[in-house]
Amino acid sequence: MPYDGQTVPGRILDGDPAAVAQVTRWITQALASPRYWILRPEWEDLHQESLLATLESLRSERFDASRELRTYVQGIVHHAASKRMTRFIREQRGTRLVEDSPDPAPSLDGKVDLARFARSVLDQLSPSCRDLIKHYFFEELSYDEISSRSGLPIGTVKSRLARCLTSARTIVRAREPQGVESE
Amino acid sequence: MSLHPELGDDLPALIAGRLEGDALRRVQAHLATCTECSAFVEDLRPMVEGLDAGGGELFSEHPTPDALTAWASSGADAASAIGRHVELCASCALESAIARRTGATRPAPTALPRRYILPAAAAVLAAFSLGLLFGRVVSPRGWTGAIELPVFPPTTRGEPAETTIHVEPGQPTVVLPAPLSLPDDIAPSDPLRIEVVDERGKARSIVVSDRAGLERRTEPSGALGIMLPARDLPPGRYTLRLRRDGSGGQALLEFPFVVAPAP
User: Fold this and answer.
1) What domain range is B75 assigned to?
2) For chain A, which residues score pLDDT lower than 50?
3) What percentage of residues in chain B have a pLDDT greater than 70?
4) Measured between CA atoms, how close is B93 to chain A, in angstroms?
């Protein structure tokens, strides 16, 4: 056993269902983000690929146990998903008549899809941003009311909401395929 | 975000649909001529529409992995709190779908115990990627050995040749790679059932998916890997059968095979 049996890597190699479930959680959280929304039909396959790569990595002791496993696993996911994304976009471009037309953002069909997408954006934001967006967008509180509840000055509430929306915009835009260079 | 300070707090209010009257008209007039601000509003539209569609459930905490697995294994009640969460959470929906697909939540004997999923999947991946018929794997529980991966001869309801699968002592998993060749009239969403039955017709494993799902999991070689615990397939004769789910009709694909101890 290359890793301590009490640690998550050791428990994974020992087949501990809870440890495997935890890794699956890390993988699915990384995959089900706006950045990889266009790959939805391939998420399950990418999960399998990432899980196998993680296992192989642990078996060959490539993971440094002094580092955080979650970051390591999600790095594997991003590597696999980015490769798949590159291939996907090239295939898409190959079917278009105008080579330099922009890559379209994946469509969001129906309320469930929209709601899942919103949830995915919220998951990428900080907890304080989520709270602020909940207060302002869902509970429709005024700045005064948010200020009273949170104990923050009104000006801080306003500037934080503005920053949170800017962050949200960056996350939303990540679903637009970009940055794939042609071979 | 304050692209244009003269808008003050009006842009967040507009995005949230909370602007009315003169303030609304003033911001709309600005957006008509300002591509920067209008792009900002437009970019956030999917999130805002999603917030409207999902409501307060979008702010609920994710269930723990254990709770999600337990929910998936207990019938995945859509009306429960976790069910409502999963409905609107892509990552939890994916997680529970994976649990169901891998059979981690299925009761024996149709289930592949979770401790066998990784070595079995690794064996399939290794064998296919290397183009070998035998993959050497190390199970997480210490079993080391060769998992035989015979590819069943491609046939459809003909007189298929019987394939023998040898199982080593202590081998945890048997992998059945079946060539997937489906008739054209099966739609991507048509439910399909893969079953492994013994000589007496008793089901040893049942997996239900659809054409699209099966094809997604088919290797480039055209083979679909079915993994079962070796303890569910003691030496004997079996048949792997694929049919339309619920039809009870003739099998679309059928592969008889024999499980025998390794010589």
Assistant:
1) 60-101
2) 97-99, 179-183
3) 71
4) 9
Q: Which residue of B has its CA nearest to A48?
A: B121
Any domain includes A103: no
Domain interval for residue A33: 8-94
Q: What is the pLDDT of residues B207-218, one digit of tens each?
A: 777 788 777 777
DSSP β-bridge partners for residue A80:
none
Compare CB distances from A21 to B9, B55, B69 and report the shortest one's residue. B69
Please, which pLDDT band fits residue B88 given cuts at 50, 70 and 90?
very high
Q: Is the ipTM of this complex over 0.95?
A: no
Q: Are residues A76 and A116 in the same domain?
A: no
Q: What is the pLDDT of residue A47?
A: 93
Chain A contacts of B67, Cβ < 8 Å?
Answer: none
- Among the partner residues B51, B88, B99, nearest to A137 by beta-carbon distance: B51
Whether residue B86 is contained in a domain is answered as yes
Structure tokens at A4: 């301590």
Per CB-CB distance under 8 Å, the chain A contacts of B217 are 45
Regarding whether A12 and A89 lie in a shared domain, the answer is yes
Nearest to B140 among A14, A28, A121 (CB): A14
Beta strands, E only, B32-185: 134-138, 144-148, 163-167, 173-179
Assess whether B127 and B237 both reside in one domain: yes
Is residue A77 exposed (0-12), middle (13-18) or buried (19+ Cβ within 10 Å)?
A: buried
Q: How far apart are CA A170 and CA A165, in angstroms?
A: 9
Q: How many domains does chain A have?
A: 2
Looking at the fold, whether B91 and B141 belong to one and the same domain comes out as no
- pLDDT per residue over A68-117, tens digit each? 999 999 999 999 999 998 888 887 766 654 445 555 566 677 888 999 99
SS3 content of chain A, % helix, strand, coil (to 5): 70, 0, 30
- Which chain A residues are closer than 8 Å to B9 by Cβ? 143, 158
As a whole number of Å, the end-to-end CA separation of chain A is: 42
Which residues of chain B neighbour A32 with C-beta distances below 8 Å?
Answer: 90-91, 93-94
Q: Do B101 and A17 touch (CB under 8 A)?
A: no
